[in-house]
């Protein structure tokens, strides 16, 4: 039963939930529009508000502009803050403020006189009637005090731990997670910057590579031109050579054939005779071995 | 009562900041504890009174002061118990009144 009642008054809070702001962020963003809109269209703007599509940091900037702008009255309306400890009480439940209020008027015993005197008045005038149900009140008070005696230390510890867990879950852990995420992002971005530095060298290397390719292409074309020109020149040379050779052969053949045609048998005989005579003369000068 | 579920008419986020259900956003006046007894009717007439909002605000002031704190205690349970006991006594006050011993006090 305690667990149903205790956690941040959840069961009681639910009763009055329809009075509470449904969505602070959307209302805050909407309040930049007219005041009438923000007052009457809380629920309808939650889904259709174009500010919902803004990036989170821009939305935060907008909300800060609304909540902490130049018109903000920080003296009379400081930002709400969760109290460290519960308000001080006397007798387990009477607020200390009552005593502080009465001290300057009645002295230090005044508040107790006021309380017990009031109780005596209520009993003597039978405004609080001492009927058979008064025993219930005694039992109720004893039971509550027994519960306080037994449970108060444990509950204080439990609530403190619970608040700490809630704070960690809702506030500290998201910050921690965000920081971790941003650290990873920063590392990645630094790596990207490092890679960009490398891109410079890569670009130069590629540029050099392209220059080399251009040079190679240039030289290949030069070689092609050289080859082509050489082939054409060789062709011309061969042509000239062939022509000259042919002319020469033709002239030689023509001259020889004409010479051979003009040799008579008489001349042939004379030449053979002179040859033999020469041979004999040679043989007499240089005898055969 | 036409604006149930909405913020108070006086609430302006640009001046008052984030909404707190425990705060009174009407025109500022001297605190009730410092009002002289003869000035109380004038003080009440100056103040805009909406019973639902008043109860709601009192509830949230109580919650923020005794319940929803970092180092919670047992006092809110005691106060709740006292409130419920006193309330149930008052609801059945006619039955209790029937049990009176004396007619004249």
Write the layout of secondary structure elements.
The complex is a heterodimer of chains A (289) and B (105).
Chain A: H1 2-5, H2 10-15, H3 24-30, H4 35-40, H5 42-48, H6 56-67, E1 89-90, E2 94-95, H7 96-106, H8 110-124, H9 134-262, H10 265-285
Antiparallel strand pairs in A: 1-2
Chain B: H1 13-16, H2 40-46, H3 51-67, H4 75-91, H5 93-97
Low-confidence stretches of chain A at least 5 residues in length (pLDDT < 50)? 1-47
How many domains is the backbone of chain B divided into? 1
Give the number of DSSP strands of chain B: 0
Span of the ends, CA to CA of chain A: 154 Å
Biggest β-sheet of chain B, characterized?
Answer: none
Radius of gyration of chain B: 19 Å
- The arrangement of helices and strands of chain A along the chain is HHHHHHEEHHHH
Number of strands of chain A: 2
Task: Spell the H/E element sequence of chain B.
Answer: HHHHH
What does this protein look like?
The complex is a heterodimer of chains A (289) and B (105). Chain A has 289 residues and is mainly α. Among the domains of chain A are: 1-18 and 51-86, no CATH class; 88-130, no CATH class; 200-263. Chain A is 75% helix and 1% strand. Chain A has ten helices and two strands, in the order ααααααββαααα. Chain A has helices spanning 2-5, 10-15, 24-30, 35-40, 42-48, 56-67, 96-106, 110-124, 134-262, 265-285, and strands at 89-90, 94-95. In chain A, strands 1-2 form a two-stranded antiparallel sheet. Chain A is rod-shaped and about 195 Å long. Chain A starts with a helix and ends with a helix. Chain B has one domain (13-99). The radius of gyration of chain B is 19 Å and the shape is extended. Chain B has 105 residues and is an all-alpha fold. In chain B, 48% of the residues lie in helices and 0% in strands. At the A-B interface, helix 3, helix 4 and helix 9 of A face helix 1, helix 3 and helix 4 of B.
């Amino acid at each position: 039963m305690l667990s149903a009642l205790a956690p941040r008054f959840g069961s009681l809070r639910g009763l009055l939930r329809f009075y509470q702001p449904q969505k602070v962020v959307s209302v805050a963003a909407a309040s930049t529009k007219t005041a009438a809109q923000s007052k009457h269209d809380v629920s309808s703007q939650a889904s259709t508000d174009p500010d919902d599509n803004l990036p989170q940091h821009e939305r935060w900037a907008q909300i800060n502009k609304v909540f902490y702008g130049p018109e903000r009255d920080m003296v009379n309306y400081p930002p709400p803050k969760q109290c460290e400890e519960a308000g001080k009480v006397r007798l387990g439940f009477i607020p200390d403020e009552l005593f502080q209020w009465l001290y300057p008027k009645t002295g230090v015993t005044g508040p107790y006189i006021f309380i017990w005197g009031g109780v005596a008045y209520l009993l003597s005038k039978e405004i609080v009637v001492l009927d058979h149900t008064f025993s219930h009140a005694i039992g109720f008070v004893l039971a509550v005090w027994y519960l306080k005696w037994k449970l108060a230390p444990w509950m204080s510890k439990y609530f403190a731990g619970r608040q700490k867990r809630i704070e960690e879950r809702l506030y500290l852990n998201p910050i921690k997670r965000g920081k971790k995420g941003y650290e990873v992002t920063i590392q990645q971005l630094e790596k990207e910057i490092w890679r960009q530095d490398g891109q410079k060298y890569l670009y130069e290397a590629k540029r050099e590579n392209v220059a080399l390719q251009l040079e190679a292409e240039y030289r290949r074309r030069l070689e092609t031109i050289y080859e082509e020109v050489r082939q054409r020149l060789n062709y011309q040379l061969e042509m000239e050579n062939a022509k000259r050779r042919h002319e020469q052969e033709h002239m030689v053949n023509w001259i020889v054939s004409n010479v051979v045609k003009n040799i008579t048998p008489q001349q042939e005989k004379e030449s053979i005779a002179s040859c033999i005579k020469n041979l004999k003369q040679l043989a007499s000068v240089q005898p055969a071995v | 009562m036409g604006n149930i579920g909405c913020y108070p008419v006086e609430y302006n986020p640009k001046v008052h900041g984030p909404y707190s259900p425990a705060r009174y956003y009407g025109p500022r006046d001297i605190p009730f504890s410092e009002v002289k007894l003869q000035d109380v009717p004038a003080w009440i007439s100056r103040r805009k009174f909406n019973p639902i909002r008043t109860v709601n605000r009192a509830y949230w002031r109580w919650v923020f002061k005794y319940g929803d704190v970092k180092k919670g205690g047992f006092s809110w349970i005691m106060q709740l118990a006292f409130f419920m006991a006193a309330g149930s006594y008052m609801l059945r006050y006619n039955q209790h009144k029937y049990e009176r011993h004396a007619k004249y006090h």
